[in-house]
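**Backbone description:**
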Amino acid sequence: MDAAYKRASNTPERILEFDLTTELNHGMAVSNLAYAVATQLGLEEHLCYELAIAGMLHDIGKLKLTCYINGQESNPLVIEELKFVRMHPTLGYEELKDQGYSDFILESILYHHENYDGSGYPSNKAGEEIPIGARILRVCDVFSALSSDRPYRKAFDRATVMELMIDEVKNFDMDVFIAFQKVIHNT
C-alpha cells in the first residue's frame, strides 16, 4: 500500500489529517468488509464478529496522535509525520489491551500493517506469523483507504483500486486476497 500511495499522490500534502467523521466511516467500511471476508474464508461466526469489532477499532491509535497532528504548522515534514503515523497500531493496542477485548481483536489491531512479505510494521512479521485477523484487516484497510478521499488525493474508482492492490499483492495473504476479491465482486 505504501508504494501505491507514493505513486498515487503527487502532492506534498499531509499524510494524516484527523477527521473523526472520516475515521468513523473508514472504520465502518473496514469492519463490514472484514466480516464479509472472514465469512467467505469460513471462519467461525464468533471470529467473524470479533473481526468486525477489530475493523471498527483498528485505527483507534490515531486518536493518540491528534495532539501531534493538529498542533502542526501548515507545512509539516512528511517524513516526521510518517514516524508518528506508524505508531498508531501499537498505540491502539496499548489503549485497548486492558479494556476486555480478546487477544484475537487486539492482535488483529496491533498487526494490521504487517505485510505478508515481512516489510510491514510494527514487528516485520511475515506470512503465517501474522495473525489471520490482521491479514484480513490489511486487505480491507487498503481497499477502504484507496476507495476514500484523503487529504492528499481523491478516492480512486474500484478498477483502479484493484489494479493498485494487485500491483502490491506481495503485501497480502493470497487466500485472504482471493476471498476479498470474491466479496468485492459480489457487491
Residues 1-16, 73-77 have pLDDT under 50 and may be disordered.
